[in-house]
Each structure stands twice: as C-alpha cells, then as structure tokens.
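User: Second chain of the day. Same drill as before.
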Amino acid sequence: MKLEGHTDLVYGLAFSPDGRLLASGSDDGTVRFWDVAKKTERRVGKPSGGKVRALAFTPDGRIMVSGDTGGIVRVWDTRTCHEQACWQNDGPIYSLAVSLTKPWVVAAGAVGAVKLWDLYSEKKGRRVGEHAGQVKAVAFLPPQGKLLVTWDDSRAPSDPRRPRLWAWASGQLHWGFDAGLVLNRMACSPDGRFLVFGGEDDEYSPRPAGTQVWHLGEDTRSAQCVHAMEGSAALAFKPDGSALAVGYWHKVKLLSTRTWDVVEDYFWPPPSDWINSLAFSPDGSKLAAGCSNGVVMLWRL
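Assistant: Same format as last time:
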C-alpha cells in the first residue's frame, strides 16, 4: 500500500524497534511519522531548511535522530513525535548511524568529517575521523561496534574509492579495501559477516553502476567480494539476515543471503521512478520503500 504526504524524494526510512512507528525523511525538508498498524500519518515534523537524507532510531525506541543537508542533527521524542533537541554538524549530512550498544549517534557528509554525539550528555559533537573528501555512508558494524566509513577523495586519485573501517576510540584506520567504485550506499548484515556496497563508476554518474557483496569472514582484514550485481539505489538486510532487499528503477528485488539468488520481485509502476530507500520492520514481516515521487510503499512479506 501507499503512504502519501511527502512532495519530493524520500531518502530516509526507519522503523521503530517495536515496529509500531515508521519514520520517513524527504527532500521536501520534512520528517513524517506513520502509525504502521493504522497506516496513517501520526505527525509531520516542520521543514528543516535542508533535505532530510538520514534517519535512525535508538535501540530502546525512545529517540529517533534525523540528519539533513542543512547540517542539522535533530533529536525526536518518539512518544510525542516532537523535536527534542538539535545539533549543528560541520556541513551537509548524507548519513548517520546510532550505536547498538552505546548512546552514540554519528553523522557525516560533505565536509569529510565524522562527528559523534552522546545522546544524553553532549550538545557539541566530537570528531572521530576526518577525510579529505565527502563521506558518503557510515554504519556501526555488528557485533564489534567498529565504525565503517566510506568516502570519495577526489584529491587523492591514487586511492579514491576505499571503504574504511575505523575503531571509534582511537580514530585510527583499522582496515580498508578497494571496491573499484565511488561508494554511496552501504548495508551491514545483522551478524556482521557481510557488507554490501552500491556505487558509481565516477562521482558525477547520474545512475548507480554496481553493487557488491563482501564477506568479512573471521578476520575483517581478509574480506572477499562474493557477489556482484547491477547498480542499485537502496540496500537493506532483513533483521534475521536471511535476505537482502535491493532497490532499483520501479522495483525491489529480494535476494537470499545463502545463494544470492533473487527469491522475490516487488514492482511499482511509474511515476515511482527510483526506489531511494528501504527498511524492514524489526520482525521482518514488512518492507518499506521510499520513492522519487515522494510516496512511501509498504509491503507485507
């Protein structure tokens, strides 16, 4: 079914840990909260002054965090769906992540800095990593909790496309490899065994060029690419790790993580355009997709 209200591309999607609330962020500058059971809009967050590109809930579900291209991190109380606090990042935010074990949120984007806040004790974030180019994606890698960072450094042509795994405490480079793409999208499997990256052949490509699945094995330094496929616009693992959802033009493919074969296709006719964001409900029974026309689609699996 369709959840309608946004007037521009939907790049951010996240379910609350109890599965009752779905948050969506759009290039129209709003954050919308949806009641999943009733399939109705609970509240619209005011326009942020920037395009909302990233959303994440805390593990206890009490807080939802959003990041926008205006450089603002906003903290939302999920009981009231009202903004509780806001912090200024050093530049436009393209990605953010919330730790599964600590009250931390990290945000990153255009200026190449990765910034960390303690949700309950800090208003001024700390830099935990800095890069010469744009940081395209950040995530905490389970179960170790290390911070995975991908960036594009056009000023370092000898090494422009390496995803980097950072140990947050020291801010030192722990591990990296060359994926051969300018990486813009990333997803980690729940058990931390697989990383999936999506990216372009070059920074200015208007369409995704490739998607790669990497197996980390026992030692993250021995990562191997185990599967490659056509370019994608959105990625999400099923909470039990059994499937990977991949968003394309007008469709979503569901792949088995055992064989990497397609087990299901979900189509959505024009004018849906690209599927720009994906999120599974915590129990894996629902899949939400954010489209270029502002619609959020919700499928029961």
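The CA atoms of residues 105 and 123 lie 12 Å apart.

User: Great, on to the next one.
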